[in-house]
Amino acid sequence: MTLVDQNIICFAGEDWWFHNPHSNLHLMKAWSATNRILFVNSPGIRMPDFKGDKFAYKRVFAKLGSLMRFVKQAQPNIWVFTPFAIPMMPRFQRGIARFNKLVLQLQIRFLMRRLGFDRPILWVTVLVAKDVALELRRTSGKCLIYYCVDNTPHYPGVDRAYMTALEDDLNRHADLAFFTNQTLLEERASFNPNSFYTGHGVDYDHFAQAQSRSLPVPADIAAIKGPIAGYMGEINSLDIGLLKFLAVNNPDVSFVFVGDIYAEMDEVSQMGNVHFLGKKRYEQLPAYLQCFDVCCLYYKTETSFNNYRNPKKLLEYLATGKPVVSVSILEVRRFAQYVQVANSYREYSALLRQAIEHDAPDARRDRLQFAARQTWDDVAAGIAGRIESVMGPLAAA
Hints:
Helix content is 41%, strand content 16%. By secondary structure, the chain is of the alpha/beta class.
C-alpha cells in the first residue's frame, strides 16, 4: 500500500544536504512518487561545545551551508528547507524554546502557503519541533506521526529532562507512533495505543553492487593490504579500547574506516594497520564496501543512547553479502541469525577471525535473502498502510 495525493511535512532528525541518506530521507523519497514532501532539516538540539568538542566547527559550518540554501526543490515533489533556530542553552532554555517555536511556526506556515501544502500529514522525528507540530495538527494537519529512531533524551550533550518531557508529550498526542527499536517500543507503548515497530529498510540494489567486486577500486583503499575489517558511517561514540585490542591482536588485518570523524581517534590512528579514509559520497560507498572482507560495528555499549541504536548500516552491510561482526546492543541481538554478536573484546576478536577465514556460503545466502526482503519501498508500504488505517477514522470524526 502507498500514500497518494498527500502533502507531507517531515520534521527530520538529519540534514538532507549534509548527511548521507538517513531513514527519513529514504522514506520520503519512496513516498514522493505519489505525494508532495516538505523535508525540514533538523534545526539542531544542542549548543555547539567549542571548548570540549574540537569537531563542533564542522557541524556549524555544515549547518550554515544548509541555511544558505533556505528552501530548495531537491527532486520532483520534494522541497528541502533548513529552518533558522537558536541552539538550546540550559540557562535560557524556556525563552529559546518559545522563540524557536514562534519562528519555526512562521517559517512553516509561510512555506505551506507558498507551496500549497494544505491539510498536511505531519511526520516528526526531531523532538524540538514538537510544539509546532502539535499546533499544526490542531489547526490544519490531517494526521500527526511520531517516528522514533533513537533514544534521543540520552543523546550526549542534551538536557535529558527537557528532551524526555518533549518526547512524552509528542508521543501521547501523536495519532501514530513508530519505533525502530523493539525495546523502545515496549518501554513506551503505554503512552500511545497506536504504537508500532518498524525496522529500517535498505537501498538494496545500491549496496548489492558490492557483491561482485566488479566496481573500480578507489585508489585509497586499493593501497591497503587485506584482509580488511571495514566500518562505514560517522565515526563517533566508538569503543576505542575495542579498536586498540583488535588492532594489536590481529596485526595481519587492516582496520578501515570510511566516514566523517567526530571523535578523538589519535590513540588508534597511529597504529600501522588502522586506516581512516574520510567521508565518501553515497554513490561511492559500494566501491569501498566491495573491498571489505568483514563489516564491523564498534559502538560503545555502556551508553543508553548507543545501546538503543538500530544501526541503519546493518542492513546495508548485509546487502553486500559480507559477514558482519558487532558489539552486543539491544536491536542487533534480534538479528543474531545473520550477525556475529560479541559480548567481550576477546570474543569479538575470535568472531572476526572466524568471519574472515570461514564464512559459509549458506550464511552468505541467508544474509542476502534477508536484506532483499527489507527494501525501503517495503518499509514505506507497511507504514503507509498504518497511516491510511488511522486517517479514515480521523476524517470521519
